[in-house]
Amino acid sequence: MKKITSMVLAIGLGGSLILAGCSSENSKVSNGVNKMLDTTEELSKAIDSGDQAKVKEVGPQLEDQWSSFEDDVKKDNKDLYEKIEKYLDPTIAGSEAATLDQETLGNLNDQLTDALKELDEKTK
Fold first, then answer.
1. Most exposed: 1, 15, 24, 112, by fewest CB within 10 Å?
2. Is the pTM of this model over 0.70?
3. How far apart are CA 57 and CA 16, in angstroms?
4. Which domains does the chain have, with CATH numbers?
């Protein structure tokens, strides 16, 4: 009887640790996505107002935010990883350009935002 109780407790504890690991990974992705969505919103406002200095300040932040959780996304959501990468790199490059192309950068930022929202929904 003692062995059965010990085994049940061990299985329960193991299962809890596994679930905690999954939850931790999802919350890391979710937190990262939320930070990036805040940044794309801030970038959108800067683009719309034509504030090139703010665009140059905000746009590059996306790379650091993405790098903090992109490996988890690549492992679990390869299709969304590729979709985000497709729009992230040109958005960052556009934000660092010598002259601001509001229309192109705005469209790229919108597409990046949509891909991030899609990932956010999938990780809930």
1. 1
2. yes
3. 42
4. 28-122 (1.20.120)
